[in-house]
Amino acid sequence: MVQLLIGHKGSGKTKQMVDMANERVAVSDGSVVFISKNDRLMYDLKHKIRVVCMEDFKHITNGDEYIGFLYGIISSDHDLEVVFIDSILKHADFSIEDVPQFITRLKSISEMYGLEFVVSLSAGMEEIKGVDFTGCNILNK
Length: 141
Fold this sequence. Notes:
Layout: E1 2-7, H1 13-27, E2 31-36, E3 50-53, H2 63-75, E4 80-85, H3 99-113, E5 116-122, E6 136-138
Parallel strand pairs: 1-5, 1-6, 2-3, 2-4, 4-5
């Protein structure tokens, strides 16, 4: 399943995502990964959550490389249950035009590996065009 937090900057998406990750790791039998732009949130997240800071991976510069990076995370952890991706538009030179294909690919990966993705997007619903939200859960309607 792909869950989305969509809203403009300052609408509380990151705080909600941190709370969700902390709640999830408390009841999870598997691994929880939180991907963010930098390490600013590291101390807000429980220590059992694997925090990945994209500033450490500057060579990932486009959507294909980012998807490959996700496959690397998946292949290195067979107990992975959920991946939180905070502010995807700040990672790997993503633009709003890349979102439809990215969401489609995440849905496919989610189904294939039985994973859940929670992704935040700093944009309004009216800005996100061409996304097939079938199979997605929008958390903050």
